[in-house]
Amino acid sequence: MVATGKLGKQDWLDEGMRVLAGAGHPALRPEKMARSLGVSRGSFYWHFRDVADFHAALLARCEDQIVDRPYRDAERTSAAGTSEMLGALIDIAFGQPPVLDRALFNWAPTSELAAAAVERIGRRRIELLKTGLEATGLEAGTASKRAAVLYWTYLGRCLAPGFDPGSGVVGELRGIFLGDG
User: Fold this and answer.
1) Which range, of 25-34, 44-53, 171-180, averages the lowest pLDDT?
2) Lowest mean pLDDT among 90-94, 100-104, 164-168, 175-179
3) Which residue, 34, 56, 119, 180, is most buried by CB atoms nearer than 10 A?
4) Is the pLDDT of residue 106 over 80?
5) What is the DSSP string of 91-138?
6) What is the secondary structure of 71-94 as a DSSP string?
7) Is 87:176 a contact under the CB 8 Å cutoff?
8) CA 68-162-101 angle, 5° bins
9) How far apart, in whole angstroms, are the C-alpha atoms of residue 81 and residue 70?
10) Would you state the torsion angle of the CA atoms of residues 140, 155, 121, 28, taken in this order, to the nearest 10 degrees?
11) For 127-132, which contacts have Cβ atoms below 8 Å and span 24 or more sequence positions?
């Protein structure tokens, strides 16, 4: 990507997302990204205090992309807090490539910031799933356990290279968790 006009903070974050998904966290270096964007490294420091500041902003962007955006998309397709919404969330989550999840899990052992983001993302996902399962009529304790199992199933899919769950597996998940497979 070559910059045209003034490069903004979002352009750097877009490049960071592309680099993280493609080459992983070791490639998140200002000088390398600046070359790719066709700008000086000083542009990076105009928008971010330091690399840690960039990483924090990038991790927040990842969280939005892999937690908040799928949830918003599921809400748009069905009424909030319903089993239909939970079904849509399952379809969306298992239908997207897991490259960012893999990249974050690979980054977490080397960065406290990334590890905290992975932990926060996991807690948020389980809470959203629990809320969705409670909307199907499950008691809170059962919903909590099933949310954890559903999330762990998702993580297994993300962390198993080359595994494509296919619609049959997603249908089974819907059947197990929603009774509508």
Assistant:
1) 171-180
2) 164-168
3) 34
4) yes
5) HHHHHS--HHHHHHHHHGGG-HHHHHHHHHHHHHHHHHHHHHHHHTT-
6) HHHHHHHS-TTSHHHHHHHHHHHH
7) no
8) 25
9) 14
10) 180
11) 128/67, 128/71, 128/89, 129/86, 129/89, 131/81, 132/81, 132/83, 132/85, 132/86, 132/89
Using alpha carbons only, how large is the chain's radius of gyration in Å?
A: 18
Q: Which two tokens stand for residue 123?
A: 């807690």
Q: How far is CA 45 from CA 11, 36, 111, in A?
A: 13, 16, 21
Check: CB of residue 86 under 8 Å from CB of residue 178. yes
Output the six-digit token pair for 26: 């070791």
What pTM does this model have?
A: 0.88
d(CA 82, CA 93): 17
